[in-house]
Amino acid sequence: MRTLCASTLIGEFFIVGFAGLVAMRTSDLSVATVWTVSGIAMVLCVLLCGFLTRPGGVQLGWALQIALIASGFVVPTMFFLGACFAALWWASVHFGKKIDEAKARFAEQAGTERAPEPDAV
Question: What's the rounded Cα separation, in Å, for the pair 62 and 52?
């Protein structure tokens, strides 16, 4: 799960940066405000990659998805992109858990299906 979710977050890192560039030109917000908010969101994307396996990591990811969608009030295209990344986040969590379960099953099977060792003489 960690790999899929981290990939989604790194993609969001770039999208937030590009949205900051758009917001700087098209919104009435000051440049400092745009880059403070965008910078914090970008740092959160990167930091969250390391917190995914800790309790609450996935929930923080969902909060970030909601914030990304809400940024559509400043840059309207972000409503669409935020929804796309929220869908990617859901898929990353959902299928990542399935992959983790499959890996655990395969590891368990590999551990129990070892070839018998020859008797030492």
Answer: 11
Residues in the chain, overall count: 121
Q: Which two tokens stand for residue 25?
A: 């030109």
Q: Interior CA angle at 100 toward 60 and 112, to 5°?
A: 150
Q: Which of left, alpha, beta for 36 (phi over 0: left; psi -120 to 50: alpha)?
A: alpha
> Three-state secondary structure along 43-66?
HHHHHHHHHCCCCCHHHHHHHHHH
Which 8-state DSSP code applies to residue 75? S
pLDDT per residue as tens digits for the range 53-96 = 899 999 999 999 999 999 999 999 999 999 999 999 999 999 99
Tokens 């908010």 belong to 37
How many angstroms separate the CA atoms of 86 and 98, rounded? 18
